[in-house]
Amino acid sequence: MEKSNKDKVVELLKAIETGATEPIAYINPNKYTQHNLSAADGFAGFGALLKALPPNSAKVKTVRAFEDGNYVFTHTEYDFFGPKIGFDIFRFEDGLIVEHWDNLQETPKQANPSGHTMVDGPTTSTDVAKTEGNKKLVRQFVDDILVNGKMDKIAGYFNRDNYIQHNPQIPDQLSGLGKTLGELAKQGITLKYDKIHQVLGEGNFVLVVSEGNFGSSYNAFYDLFRLENGKITEHWDVIEQIPAKESWKNNNGKFGF
């Protein structure tokens, strides 16, 4: 029975921990574009990244995996050169992986103000028939609120009585989000998204890839939303600072969808 692209990705990521060589065959050796700026381009760059890990040091636990057309996106707990939470996106052609993007953040030492970690919560999608509508709604939310700052519209997007937040600094409920943004503003710390690069979804889970400012740093934002009845009810994210171009190990850029 043919494996799904989702299964192939989960096996490939686990191989970082186990050292299994079979899943490497899921990558097209002649066409592999790398957007992790710490890794060299191509199939050889992926191999070099694996070789740089001390033997038996890596741990990989993929918590969520979703599929949208030729794309698979995952939410994973990593431990290589320290514990991290990551989102990965893989693009397939003819059953083989030809492109990869990711975003990584150091795992916090404690839960957020409401007791949530960066990965806990529901892991499987529902309402697959509503995928496109959910993607449209979430894109509009990010565009209205995070790109254009239309805060008067924020309440209309949320399940106000049951909004669960996994960002390490922000408590649950819409009031928790508003309070945190207000406190940051008082400290002169701005959160401003500049551009949406990609929106992927499976059912009631939608991932948005964006770039923008958080304080003095310029970042890639990967935001995963879970919806219920047409409202945002849960949020996970990973924020990674985009390094200076002179340190990049490939020239593909962080985005390029």
Structure description:
The chain is 21% helix and 35% strand. Strand 9 (217-228) and strand 10 form a beta hairpin. The protein has two domains: 5-107, Nuclear Transport Factor 2, Chain: A, CATH 3.10.450; 128-241, Nuclear Transport Factor 2, Chain: A. The strands form two sheets. It has a five-stranded mixed beta sheet with strand order 1-5-4-3-2, covered by helices on one side. A five-stranded mixed beta sheet has the order 6-10-9-8-7, covered by helices on one side. The protein has helices spanning 5-18, 42-51, 131-147, 173-186; strands spanning 33-34, 59-68, 71-79, 83-93, 96-106, 164-165, 191-202, 205-214, 217-228, 231-241. The two termini are 31 Å apart. With 257 residues, it is an alpha+beta fold. The model has no long low-confidence stretch (mean pLDDT 93).
CATH topology of the largest domain: Nuclear Transport Factor 2, Chain: A
Spatial gap, N to C terminus? 31 Å
Structural class: alpha+beta
Task: Name the assembly state.
Answer: single chain
Largest sheet: 5 strands, mixed
Instruction: Point out poorly predicted stretches.
Output: none
Q: How many domain modules?
A: 2
Broad shape: globular
Number of helices: 4
Radius of gyration, in angstroms, nearest whole number: 18 Å
Please give the share of residues in helix. 10-25%
Q: What order do the strands of the largest sheet run in, or round the barrel if closed?
A: 1-5-4-3-2
List keywords for this structure.
257 residues; Nuclear Transport Factor 2, Chain: A; 2 domains; 5-stranded mixed β-sheet; 10 strands
